[in-house]
Structures are given as C-alpha cells and as structure tokens.
Specification:
The complex is a heterotetramer. Helix content of chain A is 80%, strand content 0%. Chain A is an all-alpha fold. Chain B has one domain. Chain B is globular and about 60 Å long. The termini of chain B are far apart. Classes of the chains: A mainly alpha, B mainly alpha, C mainly alpha, D mainly alpha. Chains in contact: A-B, A-C, A-D, C-D. Chains A and C meet through helix 4 of A and helix 28 of C.
C-alpha cells in the first residue's frame, strides 16, 4: 500500500461519499457543499495524476466560482428543504434501476476495456510525471486556438444572457 | 527510523508546520494589538494601555476572554454548518501560509528547504485556489446562523469576493508574464538582484489593482461591507460568540498576512534585499534593528514605566537584546537575511492596511460592485494587455 | 479600328436607351423620350456606318472579325463565350436593322404621338433593336438563340402593346406560343450540334464541318437532322407553313411594329439563320430541298390568301409571309446571296408598305378595311406615291428593287445548281398573284370614289416626321436593287460579290463542281464570270415580268374597269371563294386538331385528375398522417424534466449496451 | 506501485452514475444543476486519467474546455433559475411543466 494508493482511495471514497451526500441531502446547500467536497477531492486526484494546472483550475473555477454562484443563488432564493413529491412513474420504475445498471455497466466496461487490459499486463500504470503548465498552454494556444476563441465568445454570450435575464427579472 | 529516512518530507514538514503555527498565532494576536495601537494614534488616542506595558498583554487578555465566554448556538441555526463555517474560514486562512517562502530555498535541512512548507512550482495558483475556497467560511456562516443580518452579510461577502477575485487574479497575471513562472521562488528570483528590478515598477498599475482587490478580498475597510457595523449589526458573524468569533477574527488577520506576503513576493522581491550584493554592511541590519528596539525599550523602561509595567518592558528589552545579539553571530547572519527583509516588507504592508482603515470611509454596496466591475476589472485587463504587448515587442 | 475593337457599343446603346426609357421615361416629356429612343438607335446606326468603313480596311485573313468578351457558361465540356463576330453577312443585316429601325423610330414619334405608354413603346422598340443586333452579331448558336428569343419576347410585348384589347393580348400569346413550337426544334438542333461538333461556336462548327462530305438525300444524316431542326425554328420565327398563322394576327400591334418587326427584321431572322448556317445546309441536300419546298409552297399559298383579304394590314401580312417564302426558296436553292438580297430589298419596300399603310390608316382615322376607303389619291399624295413605288417594287416591275432580288431567286430556282421546275413554277405564279393583290390594294385604297363617310372622317396628310421616313424608304426601294443591275446583262452583281466571301467559305467543293457541270456553269456565285447562256437566263427572267404585268392588268380589270366582273367571278367559283376567304380554315383546323384536345387533356386529366386527386391527395394525406402521429406521440412530452432525464438515461444505457456488445463480439 | 488507470476510470464511472441518479431523483432545480456538474466532473476525471495514461495533453485541454462550458452554463442556468423562482414562487421541477403538449 503505497502513498499514492492511499491518497487515491482516501480521495475516491470522499468523492463517492460526497456524491451520495448530494443525493440524500435535503437541504440544497448541503448538496452544494457535498458537491464542493467531490470537486476538491477530484482536484487532489488530478494532482496525483500530475495535472497540477487542471487541479488548480478545478478548484479556482469550479469550487471557487461556479459553486459560489450556486451557494449564492441558494442563499438568495432562500431555498429551503425540498418537499418530497413522489417520483414520476417513469423515474421510479425505469430511471433508478437503469441508473444503477448504467453505473455498474460503465464500471465493468472500463474495467475490461483496452485500458484495463493494459493495466493487466503492467503497462499503463500512472508514472507521476507532472505535466508542465507551459506545454499545456502551448497546446491550448497553438493547436486549440480556435476552440479557445470560440469558448471565449461562448462566455461572452453567456454573460449577455445572464444580464438580460437579470434585467427582465426586475 | 527508516520511515523518517524515507519520508523526510513528512517529518520536516510537520516540524515546520508546528513552528509556523506558533509564530503565526502569536503574530495574529499581536497584529490585533498593532492595529488597535496604530488606529488609536491615527485618531489621536492612546489605544490599549493598561494591560501590560503599552497594552502588550492585551491580546493575551482578549484570548482568555474569548475562551471563557459562553458559546451560544442559535436554536434555529443549521448546526453542522454553523460549527463548520469558522473552522473552514480559519483553517483555509492558515493553509495558505504553507505556500509562502519566507526565505531563500537554498537554506535546507535534510534536503528540505527551511523557510517554506509546501514548495510547489505552481504555488501561486494553489494560493488562489485556497483563497477562493475561503469564501465559503463567510457565506456559510451567514447562511447557517439563519437570521437576516448574517444572511445579508453572507450574500454580500460571497458576491463581493467572487467579483473581486477576478480582478485580483488578472492584476497578478502581468507579474507572471514578467517572471515567466508560477512558483514563488521563480517569481522572486526574477526580481533579483536589487530594488531596481522589483516588479512593482513595471507593474505599478497591476500593483494598485492588486492591493485594492486584496483589501476587498479580505473584507477590510473600506470594503468591509459583509460586517458593516452601521448597516448589519456585525455582518456574517453577528450570531457568533466566544471562540468561533475569535476564529473568524483570526482568519481575517491571517488573510491580511497572506495577502501582504503575496504582495511582497509578487511586487517587492519577497525575501530579496533591496540593496545589491556588494554592500556587505546590510548583513548587520537585522541585528542592529533589533538592538535599536532593545535600546528604545530600555530607555522607555527607565523613563516612563512604573510598577509592573517596568519589569515587563525590561523583559521585552532583554529579549530584543538577545535576539539582536544572536543575529550578529556570523553563522546566523546570512540565514536571517531573507526572513528579515520578508517580514519587514510584510510589516509595512500590514501597516498600510491599518493606515487605510484609519483613513478611508466605507463604500456603499452598489458603489462597491460598480467599482469592482466597471473600474477595477477593465483597468487590470488593459494592464494585462499592455504588458503582454510590450513583452512581445521587447522580445522581438 | 475603334468600333471594331468596341463592337459592344453598337449593342449597348439600344439596351441603354431601353433601360432609360423603360425605367425613368414614364414621367418624362415626349421630346426627352424621343431624344433617348431615337438618339440611341441613330448612334448605333452611325456606329454601324463607321464599322462598315473600318471593315473595308480589313484584309481577308481577318474576316470574320471575332471578339470574345467573357466566358458566359461553362459546364464541364460545354462552354459558351459571350463573343461577337462580324462578316459581310453580318454587316448587311446590321445595316438593315439599324437603318430601318431608325426610320421606324422617327415614324413612330408621329404615329404614336396620341397614344398612351409612349415611353414604354420606345423602350420596347430599343430593346428589340438590342436583341436583333445580338442575334445578328452573335458568334455562337447559344448567344444567337438569346437574341432569337429576345426578339420573340419583344414581338410579344409589342403585339400586345394595347394590352387592354383582348384581341391584342391573345394575338401576342398566339405569336409567342406558335413561335415556341419552332424554337423547341431550334433548341434541340443546338444541342444536337453541340453533341455532334463539341462546340456551339460558328467558327469551330464550320471548321469541323468543312471536311465532311455531302450527305445523301436518302435517309437523314446528322447534318440533315441538325439543319431540319434548326429550320423548324426558322419556320416558326419566319412564319412559314405550317406555323405562319401567328403573323396575320400579329397585325393587332401598332403599325410601326408591324413594319419593323413583322416585315423588315425579326421575321427575316430565320432566313439569316439559314444563310449563317450555310456550310451545314449546303452539305444536306435533303434539308435544302425541304427549305426550298416550304418556301415555295408558302410563297404561293399565302399569296392566294392575300387575294381576298379586305383588311389592308392583313393583306400586307400575307404578302410578307409569301415574300419570306421567296427568301427561303432562294436559300433552299443554294442562292443564299439572292435570299439575303431579297431580304434587304424586302426590308425596304415592305417596311415602306406598312408605314404607308399606317399613314393611310392614320389619315382615315383608324379605319383598316379597304372596302371603306378609296379615292385617297388626291388627299394624301405623298403616301400615295410612296406606296405606289413600293407596290411596283414588290410586284417585281423591272427597274425596281424587288424585281432584281425576286428575279435572282427565280433564276436560282429555274437555272441554279439545284434547279427544280415545279418550285420555279410555284414561285412564278406566286409572283403574279403578288402583283395582283398588291395592285388590288392600291386601287381599292387610292382610286375610285370614296367609300368612307366624308362627313365624319377628316382625311389629312400625315405630319412631316411620318412622311420623311416614307420618302427615304421609297428612294431605297427604288434604287435598292440597282447594285444587282449589271447581273442581268451578264455583268457582276455588286451585292453578291460583296457577300460572296461568306458563302464561298466552307463551301462543299465537289458538289459545286458536279452541280456546275450539271447546270452548265450557271453557278450561284453567279455574275463573277460572265454567263455564257444568255437565252436560258432570259427564259427564266422573262416570265416573272410577264406574270407581274398580268397581275397588274387583272387587278386593274377587276377593281377599276369592271368591279361587277369581280362579283360575277365570285358567284361562279363560290366554294373556292369562301375557302380562300376563310384562309383555308387553317385556324379552325388547328383549333380542332390541337388546341381543343390539348385543352381537354389539361382540364380533365392534368387538372382534375392528376393535380386534384393525386398531388393534392398526397399532400393532404401526408399532413393528415403526421397530424395523427403527432397526436399520438405528444403524450410523451409530459413537460416533466425528470421524465425526460429518464429517457436520456434509457438511451445512454442502450448505447452502452450496444458498445459493450460490439466489444464483446470483437 | 502507483495507481492503475482503471481505478480512476471506475471511480469516474461511479461518480457519473451517481450524477445520473441524482439528476433523476432530485426535485430542486438547483440540485439538478449540481447533478449535471457532478457528471461533468466525472467525465473530467476520465479525461485527465486518459490524458495521463497516454501522455497526451489533449485530454487536459478538453477538461479545460469542459470547465469553461460549465461556467457559462452555470451563469445562464442560474439566471434562469432565479427568474423561474421569481415568477413561479417555487424551485420544484414538478411545478415547472408548462412546456408540454
């Protein structure tokens, strides 16, 4: 049991725990916090995978900005306990079992997938070589320049949309 | 034993953490004293005076008081979060300090640098990450105590922090472009050898943006809307009492320290001395400074102090004397340089904080927001743009 | 070399005029419209004059002068340029078109003075000139076809100029549709030509044709097929049998239009086309024969109809048809030069006849029926004299232009390389009848005592701007033929020697040789070497004159000397009379044969069955089905987001199962 | 030894499944949003893991884009949520079902 494995299992368990909490929690804000928990643990996993920059971005943007927005909205709308209405039939009889099935299935699939095979014969194990942020940015700003610009436009539009909606709210 | 040999990182880090915590705690405690004193003098008062000489024991007394106060928890509150919030705020605030290098990495024990706990090569990003999480302490506090003033305070703080975090980050990017590195050591090294190369000169605009955003980020005057006494009784920590309140309090000061450290590192050359290497006399500065303090304390003891205070101040003078003397030992002298300069600069920034608090009035909330979005953000953006352009041009 | 390098100017001017008058002219005063309309045409006329001058400087190598402007259509191997070319033939046509249309424009300023839509009329006229010039100058079949259809459009627009008159609009439609029948063949001909020669440029086609041998008259070779198809277009456009029916109705249009389009220029496009494509025709004897046959028949047939027409313009219309027949007869006989020559002279005297008729109608206040005229000789002398000269010309009285041209055609028919006695006879009788009905027209109109209501109608001579063109044309129609005069005495024919290079090029040599040996050397490029067999020539040139004089005398007898004889004759051959009087019931025949069945089919089959039952049924059916399905399916959309989510999950699971299965299989 | 890739993938699969379940289960619009975020995170984890397995940077770049898109989505989505809440006085998706046949 090496240090990375310990860290992995610690974070993995935390993440799953957080996800489950997200489901069972009745207060939206609890769900939000559990989601943050998931994100942070994922960030740690990213570190373990040597993706430092992504880890940082994960926390800064996801946990630090997006989730803050969520919390903010929850506080603003003072969203209390969600009332328990019965699931729609579809959801109850089809959705839930299927969801679990999907979960298991994907797990199984990944486990047996090509990658899994590579694991089996020892290769493909994670060598903790940290990806330098420089290379990443090179990739981002040279090969993926156009998508990058596209996303920036997307963000701009999102801002406009949000502003418009807010204005109409008044 | 071999465990230690294998995981020297863990052992050394643990030791460093303990030491740092002790130092920082005391620093926090005395920072309150420092602030009260300075503000008092700005307002031409004496400030804390009676508990110990010059009120030097005041922090201790406050600590006691906090510990022995009754810990009230509002019945309607959300227990878990109510407890969680202050711990979150405080722990995160302290965590950030782990990334700060107080001295050059060349000074090592067991192959581990002494003056920094976590030496990451994207330290800056991590620092921002942690600070960005810091919001939740305040927000949750506001939410969980389930009454209207805290809620408003929480709302305000979350909105405000998110808004100013953007310009905070942007204002720093200019420096990153100049330093061409994310790691604090890299950034600091890029500012050697002397005061002429500090980033503050090239990045003056960025620095102003940074300092403004930083003050807002730490909820200090004039941006302390979340705890505006005159509007919301005490903002997000209205319902908090005793030690939980103390935690928020200390978290705020810790954040101040962090931000000051960051400013020092980014713009003022961190632990670098402002003078060129060749001036060897600067090695004596720490010791001499401490000795001067000791001298002043001694004079004060003899001149003004009466009764118990006299003894206390004498002790202080003695301590300062010992410290100064030890700083003059040739072996210690080079080691102490880095921290000396670093702490001095940080101290100046803290003084600036207090000074501003003593001087400026508080913003109105809408002013705050429009200032953040309509002035600060564009300016820092333009700054970033211009910097990038200039760098490209110069590179050509 | 200016105009040679800028041929487009000649085209552009009328188009410009049309655009200006058509778009802006409506609110302009008449003088402005006149300036634009006449100015543009006269300028392009001057351009043509300049062109002739410069053209004369060119050496034989540079002819035909070819200018390529830009690639117009390019689809795979099919490529059409916007290119113009000029040779002697083109020059003649250019001259005729611009000259006559200029005069007609001037005439119109007087004739249309009191009509509405003044600017519209002139813009139509200019547009027509533009298209006609395009047709004439085009260097490839497709561009020629553009002009071809363009003039068709203009003719449609101008026939229906008074679009409030039902008869006018129907006449326009009739003209357009009937012509379209021929154009269908024309189009196929073009495509066939492209298929055969891999190009539509005249030059390229002719180069590919020139090595080809003459096709046998038995069976239809490719050349014959192309020629016949193209000739179908000519039949429609030039109102030959059996598609001539539209031209008489076209007289519904204003008289200047009849003069310009339906006498002088457009209807002769067919002749021009045949002449232009002569390398093909001269290698397709069968097609040649068909052309000649159709021409001769038409010439005779419509002449007979002309005898009994009472509407002055109808008479002229039928005479136009028969004259065109003569031109085709000439071309069919291989005497393209003669055909074109007759085309020119005909443009003069027939244009003049129409304009004069217009002047007459103008004088008697819109009356067109000759039975209500008479005795106008003194009242409108200028019109009378000009019309008389034109009549003499068309009747082929020696010395007048018509005589020379018609004579050459009959000569070709009688003594040419392809000589055919039957056709020659038809032409001859036709000539006689022509002079008969033409003089009948003159006598009925200008002689005898007035049969119109003298109280009501104030007969007055037309204004100057109408008379001047009449006089000019009259001069032309007198002297226009003299260029060919020496030919009669075996000398050289200037006109023919002028256009000779065109028709000499790409000539099918062996045929000519063989024909010459057969025709005793009376070659169609006649007049270049003195004709050895004068008496043959006399034999074929004498009869037309006699016929013409006979016709004159008959007309005089029936109309002046003994009008009662006419009625008696009518009573005796009553059946024939009614038959001819009703134009052989051709219109009724067509109506019975084609139009009614077509109407029935389109009403009952296409409309009530296919459109209403099948197509509409299909459309409504689809709509119905989709509505039903929508009604069933919409329950799925419950509006509950989580249900949707469930559907998504189901889909995802299915997809993953699929992937898994595929992976298992592999 | 260090951690096999498949562990990460399994973890991300589990998280994704949980996200789906949350999406189906929860009634509160905001929470449903969070479920979406959760799924996105799971996918990100898979991306990073693959990127690491094959030493390809593209995976990381994609994570970057995913985060950006998520940010945009959250901004607009939450704005919508606020308007809905103001208009309908409820955050329950069951109540927001006007858009149907």
């Amino acid at each position: 049991m090496s240090l990375p494995l310990i860290v992995f299992f610690a974070c993995g368990v935390t993440a799953v725990l957080g996800a489950v909490l997200l489901i069972v929690a009745r207060e939206p804000i609890h769900s939000a916090l559990s989601l943050i928990l998931v994100m942070v643990s994922l960030a740690v996993l990213y570190l373990l995978l040597g993706a430092e920059f992504i880890a940082a971005v994960q926390i800064i943007v996801y946990a630090g900005a997006i989730m803050v927005l969520f919390v903010f909205v929850i506080m603003l709308l003072n969203a209390g306990v969600e009332e328990r209405t019965n699931l729609s039939k579809m959801a109850k009889y089809a959705g839930v079992p299927l969801g679990f099935f999907l979960l298991l299935e994907i797990a199984h699939w990944f486990w047996r997938s090509a990658v899994g095979a590579r694991i089996a014969n020892g290769s493909g194990t994670v060598n903790a070589s940290a990806v330098s942020t420089r290379d990443l940015s090179m990739q981002l700003f040279q090969q993926y320049l156009f998508p990058f610009e596209a996303t920036s436009i997307l963000i701009l539009i999102a801002i406009l949309g949000a502003v418009v909606l807010a204005k109409r709210g008044e | 034993m071999d465990f230690i040999a294998q995981h020297a990182v863990l052992v050394v880090s643990l030791v460093k953490i303990v030491i740092l915590l002790l130092v920082v705690m005391t620093a926090l405690a005395y920072l309150t004293w420092f602030e009260r004193k300075v503000v008092a003098h700005i307002q031409s008062r004496w400030g804390p005076y009676y508990v110990g000489a010059h009120g030097l024991l005041q922090p201790l007394a406050d600590g006691m008081k906090f510990l022995f106060k009754e810990d009230v928890t509002p019945p309607a509150s959300d227990r878990l979060l109510y407890v969680l919030a202050p711990f979150l705020a405080f722990s995160l605030a302290l965590t950030t300090l782990a990334l700060i290098p107080f001295g050059p990495p060349t000074i090592q024990i067991l192959g581990q640098p002494v003056f920094v706990i976590a030496n990451s090569n994207i330290g800056l990003l991590f620092l921002f990450a942690i600070t960005s999480i810091g919001v939740y302490g305040v927000a949750l506090a506001g939410w969980s105590s389930n009454s209207k003033y805290p809620l408003l305070g929480g709302l305000r703080s979350s909105a405000q922090m998110v808004s100013y975090e953007v310009s905070l980050t942007l204002s720093v990017v200019g420096v990153l472009l100049l330093a061409n590195s994310f790691s604090f050591n890299g950034i600091i090294e890029s500012q050697s050898p002397n005061i002429g190369h500090w980033h503050v000169w090239k990045q003056i605009v960025g620095f102003l943006c940074y300092i403004t955003a930083a003050i807002a980020e730490t909820n200090r005057v004039p941006f302390d809307l979340p705890e505006a006494e005159t509007e919301l009784v005490a903002g997000f920590h209205t319902e908090y009492s005793s030690f939980k309140f103390a935690m928020f309090f200390m978290a705020e000061y810790a954040n101040m320290i962090t931000v000051s450290c960051l400013a020092t590192i980014l713009f003022f050359g961190g632990w670098l001395s402002p003078f060129p290497e060749s001036w060897t006399w600067q090695l004596y500065l720490p010791g001499v400074g401490l000795l001067l303090i000791a001298l002043y304390c001694a004079y004060d003891t003899i001149a003004h102090m009466r009764g118990i205070a006299r003894i206390q101040l004498a002790v202080v003078a003695l301590l300062a004397l010992i410290a100064g003397a030890s700083c003059l030992i040739p072996a210690v002298m080079p080691v102490i340089q880095g921290p000396f300069w670093f702490i001095t600069k940080v101290g100046l920034f803290l003084f600036l904080y207090v000074w501003i608090r003593g001087t400026l009035p508080r913003f109105r909330y809408d002013q705050l927001m429009s200032f953040g979005w309509k002035l600060l953000l564009p300016v820092s953006l333009v700054n970033l743009l211009v910097t990038a352009l200039l760098i490209v041009v110069v590179k050509r | 070399m200016f105009i040679l390098n800028h041929l487009w100017i000649i085209l552009a001017l009328p188009l410009l005029g049309a655009a200006i008058n058509g778009l802006l002219g409506r609110h302009w005063p008449k003088w402005a419209v006149n300036t634009v309309g006449i100015g543009s045409v006269s300028l392009s006329f001057l351009g043509v004059a300049e062109l002739v001058r410069e053209f004369m400087r060119l050496n034989a190598a540079q002819v035909p002068w070819f200018v390529r402007y830009f690639n117009w259509i390019s689809v795979g191997s099919f490529s059409v340029d916007f290119a113009l070319q000029v040779d002697q033939l083109t020059l003649v046509m250019l001259f005729i078109v611009t000259f006559v249309s200029l005069l007609v424009h001037i005439y119109s300023t007087g004739y249309m003075a009191h009509e509405g839509g003044y600017a519209r009329f002139f813009s139509y006229l200019n547009l027509f000139v533009f298209f006609m010039l395009t047709l004439v100058m085009a260097a490839n079949l497709v561009l020629m076809f553009v002009g071809w259809e363009g003039v068709g459009l203009c003719s449609y627009l101008l026939i229906g100029f008074w679009f409030l008159k039902k008869t006018a609009t129907t006449a326009g439609n009739k003209a357009f549709i009937t012509t379209r029948l021929g154009d269908f063949g024309f189009t196929i001909g073009i495509l066939l030509a492209f298929w055969a020669f891999k190009s539509v440029d005249f030059g390229a086609i002719f180069n590919r044709v020139s090595p080809m041998p003459v096709e046998s008259t038995s069976g239809i070779g490719i050349l014959t097929a192309i020629c016949l198809l193209l000739f179908a277009g000519a039949v429609g456009k030039s109102a030959q049998l059996p598609l001539y029916v539209w031209l008489p109705d076209a007289m519904e249009g204003p008289t200047p239009v009849s003069a310009l389009i339906h006498a002088a220029t457009m209807v002769t496009a067919g002749v021009y086309m045949v002449a232009r494509m002569h390398p093909l025709y001269s290698r397709a004897p069968l097609a040649m024969f068909v052309v000649a046959l159709v021409g001769a028949l038409t010439a005779f047939y419509s002449a007979t109809i002309g005898i009994l027409q009472t509407d002055i313009k109808k008479v002229l219309a039928y005479s136009t048809v028969s004259q065109l027949g003569y031109m085709f007869l000439g071309c069919g006989m291989g005497a393209y030069a003669a055909g074109i020559f007759h085309l020119m002279t005909h443009a003069f005297f027939k244009g003049l006849l129409f304009l004069a008729a217009g002047s007459v109608i103008h004088a008697v206040g819109g009356e067109q029926d000759m039975r209500n005229m008479g005795g106008l000789r003194k009242k409108i002398p200028v019109t009378y004299w000009t019309m008389l000269l034109a009549t003499l010309a068309i009747a082929g009285i020696p010395g007048f232009s018509g005589f020379f041209s018609k004579d050459e055609i009959l000569e070709a028919a009688g003594a040419g390389p392809h000589k055919n006695l039957a056709l020659w006879l038809l032409g001859l009788i036709g000539a006689g009848i022509t002079s008969f009905y033409m003089f009948r027209l003159v006598f009925l109109t200008f002689f005898g005592k007035p049969r119109y209501n003298e109280k009501k109608v104030r007969v007055h001579e037309s204004p100057q701007n109408m008379l001047v063109p009449l006089i000019i044309l009259a001069i032309c129609s007198v002297i226009g033929g003299w260029v060919a005069a020496p030919h009669l005495v075996g000398g050289s024919d200037y006109f023919e020697s002028f256009v000779h290079p065109v028709f000499a090029s790409y000539e099918a040599q062996p045929v000519v040789a063989q024909q010459e040996s057969l025709a005793g050397g009376a070659s169609t490029e006649g007049g270049i070497q003195p004709n050895p067999e004068m008496e043959v020539l006399q034999a074929v040139t004498g009869p037309p004159v006699i016929a013409a004089v006979l016709g004159l005398l008959l007309a005089w007898w029936f109309c002046i000397r003994k009008p009662s004889a006419a009625t008696k004759a009518i009573r005796n051959l009553h059946g024939l009379y009614t038959l001819v009087y009703n134009k052989y019931y051709v219109d009724e025949l067509y109506a019975a044969l084609f139009i009614r069945p077509l109407l029935w089919i389109s009403t009952n089959v296409l409309w009530h069955t296919i459109d209403e039952k099948i197509i509409d049924g299909a459309v409504n059916g689809t709509a119905h089905i989709s509505r039903e399905m929508g009604g069933r399916l919409r329950e799925i959309q419950s509006g509950n987001a989580r249900t949707y989510a469930t559907w998504v999950v189901i889909g995802a699971v299915g997809f993953t199962v699929l992937l898994l299965g595929l992976w298992m299989v592999r | 030894m260090s951690v096999p890739i498949s562990y990460y993938l399994v973890l991300s699969a589990i998280l994704f499944g949980l996200g789906v379940i949350a999406f189906v289960f929860k009634r509160n619009i905001i929470t449903i949003f969070m479920a979406i975020e959760l799924m996105l995170n799971a996918v990100n984890l898979a991306f990073v893991a693959f990127a690491h397995a094959w030493n390809q940077l593209d995976g990381l770049v994609f994570v970057f884009f995913v985060i950006v898109v998520a940010a945009a989505e959250a901004a607009v989505g939450l704005a919508i949520v606020i308007t809905i809440a103001q208009n309908r006085r409820s955050l329950n998706v069951e109540d927001v079902n006007l858009l149907k046949f």
